Amino acid sequence: MSIFKKHIEKQHYDKENQKPILRSSICTGEQVAGFKNVHTGKVEEIMCIRSAGDLEQFMEMYGISVISKEY
User: Which pTM does this prediction carry?
Assistant: First the structure.
């Protein structure tokens, strides 16, 4: 246990109208985590994912256990 671990504040999203996704570029491999509106298909990008730690931080921040990947 580390006493210097950064405390991550929990964020909220509309679970009925949005689903968490990880968008990945086929050409460059760039990954962006965000939320997709299930009705309109519009994506709200939240943060760029550069490592597994970034993805873990995003999932912990929003309380997500499963995330789908889109290309």
Answer: 0.80
